[in-house]
Design goal:
mainly alpha; about 80 residues; 5 helices; single chain
Amino acid sequence: MTVKERLHQLVDALSEAEADDALRYVASRRESGEADSFARWLDSRPKDDEPLTAEEEEAIEEGHADIAAGRLISHEEMLRKYG
């Protein structure tokens, strides 16, 4: 069974209210193309061609070492500490 055939079965099983919600959701996603447009925008941005400084490279290495050692805090903890 194809994906579209499975989708048709699911749609056929929806109530009118559920079908209306689904239709509005699918239509809004197709019209906005929000995920695609953001990806295109990112791709159109100029590449950063400025070389890293020695300090930046050291900071990146420290971050990788912290991650490897498990020295991490959660997003929730960051919010509690720093708002």
